[in-house]
Amino acid sequence: MPNKPLPPLYPETKEPIGADALAPLFPMDLNKCKEAGSTKTILFT
Q: Any residues with CB less than 8 A from the CB of 45 and at least 6 apart, and which?
């Protein structure tokens, strides 16, 4: 991509949306989710 996309804008103020405004949509704890196991094998039952 030659040019970076523009940041999302808050509709009322036309200012860039900060992380606080996006927190209800993208919770910060989402990155703490881990897979259930540590094995690399997929088991089918």
A: none
Task: List alpha helices for 1-45, DSSP H.
Answer: 19-22
Q: Is pLDDT at 45 greater than 70 in this prediction?
A: no
Left if phi > 0, otherwise alpha if psi is -120 to 50, otherwise beta: which for 22? alpha
What's the CA dihedral at 26, 20, 18, 32 to 10 degrees?
-40
Dump pLDDT digits (tens) for 17-37: 887 888 788 766 655 555 555
**Cα distance between residue 9 and residue 15, in whole Å:** 5
Q: Could you identify the residue written with the tokens 């910060």?
A: 28
